[in-house]
Amino acid sequence: MKKITLLLSLLLFALWGRAQDPILNASLLLENGLHPGLKVGAEYPLAGGMVSKRGKRENKRLVRSLFLGGNVGVYNHTNHHIGLLSTLELGYRRTKAHRRGNFFAVKAGGGYLQRYATLTTYALDQGGNLEEVNGNQGQALFTLTYMTGQELRYHNGSPFGWFIAPSIWLLTPYNFSFAPNLALEIGVTYSLGQSK
Amino acid sequence: MKKHIITYFSLAVVLGFFQACNLPTTDTFERFQFLTDNAKLVVTVDGNIDSDVFMLLLHGGPGGGVHVYNEGTYSVELEKEMAMVYLDTRGHGGSTGQYDRESLTLDQVGEDIYQVARMLKAKFGEDIQLFLMGHSWGGTTGTNALINTDIQDLLEGWIEVSGAHDIPLLNATAIDMFKEIGQEELDADRNPDFWEEVLEFVEPLDRNNVNYDDEGQLNAYGHQAEGRIEAVNYAEEEPSTLAYWTIQNPSYSFTSAISNLMTGAILNEETSTAAYTNRLNEITIPTLLLWGKYDFVVPPALGFSAYEEISTPSEDKYLTILENSGHTCMVNEPELFVEEVLNFVRKYAN
């Protein structure tokens, strides 16, 4: 799983040079809605463009984008573990350029979560003696995320933006099967593309 | 002004989250994981470690966790005199790991408890005085460990608090109790609507053959019933708060809450037929049985039965019925609960 994530990450970087208007993002990550962390990533548009529509009250300019995203993050579940994650996601973004750049996006993907135990982990050896052992655990991670926010480049030309993104994670293996997780991101974006 | 409010609010939220999981604890508080049979069990030791007296506490459930037991008057008082060991059993609370579904059984949980007892001796010293306490489903898992492993060799005593060591007997005696007390309450015209509903439900049940669904309904009525009994005491201090269960919680989260439910669904099925009465004679160590008089969830009849069945000499076994308690006598009558536990521990800790 680690190797697959690494290969996909390399692929993502390879796309960097070909990408048009990539968007960088950094966010406060709240794992399980509680445990604080940081997450950074980038989105690379794969397809899309602007569509203009004549409305009753205003002319609409909608920017639609299918994008590939890559992220790395870290969070601290105090008294339990530190999680290090990397994900790749495929998403769809719809931005109302005529409405100050308000947007929503949905994205789904997968990756890898490494949980580093911050609690000492003990075990008994064959002789019944206590020994410290590795309590870390790696897990496959699947994500489904909804994002909403604003791309200011469509409002005042600034390359910055902001977003809020609740997401559902699925972790496996977890005990005898899998476990869900609710995460929340509050962050900023920085567009490397042209203001429009 | 609006900007300032948002800034201060954001700051407060962030600081609050960074405070998450930091509970008020004793100076000797310690939390660690114990790896056994591919499960990483979260163990919290809180209290007077210098006493060399340790109480391993088993939580209710299945599908619960031990965190809720590490709060309130009784735990504070007990921690002054001994080290309380709060164990999240396999698949519960903050415990994680990677294992087959087939290994999620009562026997495996019993084996885990035995291994935790061995670990505590290895970590804190072979000469520590170790007691085992199980509440509700902790009476199921504790009894399982007592009769299926060598844990009795490591223990100074066993305290069963409203322990569900025989579910068929539990169901039968719960029906009896609902009928008897329900009729008394009806005659006294106390909560007639509720008691009529309960009596209507239990009347047609075959006390010797209660199905899984009816068992669940009996359990639900059991929890509701004790809240309608005037004699049951609810201490003013009820420390469980939303923050304690969420933000301040050391090991719980949405993830573990769902995992608890999944674990509970599997273990509930096996637990529903668990009946250890016929093997209680294998228990020989000093035993204290504590039950609430108005415990409809696990009726006191199980306590009376256990008292008769265990092989512990009569001078070393005790049964106390707390007159103003329901299923959680440690919350209903914390002072009396603590007194009973301390008297027992002081007598059998060398």
General description of the model:
The complex is a heterodimer of chains A (about 200) and B (about 350). Chain A is built from 1 helix and 10 strands. Chain A is mostly beta strands and about 200 residues long. In chain A, a hairpin with a 5-residue loop joins strand 6 and strand 7. Chain A is elongated and about 80 Å long. The model of chain A has no long low-confidence stretch (mean pLDDT about 90). Chain B is α/β, with parallel strands linked by helices. Chain B has 12 helices and 9 strands. In chain B, strands 1, 2, 3, 4, 5, 6, 7, 8 and 9 form a 9-stranded mixed β-sheet that branches. In chain B, helix 2 runs parallel beside helix 12. Chain B is globular, with a radius of gyration of 21 Å. About 0% of the residues of chain B have low confidence. Strand 6 of chain A pairs parallel with strand 1 of chain B.
Count of individual helical segments of chain A: 1
Instruction: Name the structural class of chain A.
Output: mainly beta
Proportion in helices of chain B:
40-55%
Count the E strands of chain A: 10
SSE sequence of chain A, one letter per element? HEEEEEEEEEE
- Determine the number of helices of chain B (DSSP H or I, runs of at least 4 residues): 12
Question: Averaged pLDDT of chain A, please?
Answer: 89
Please mark out the parts of chain A with pLDDT under 50 across 5 or more consecutive residues, or reply none.
none
Largest sheet features of chain A = 8 strands, antiparallel, barrel
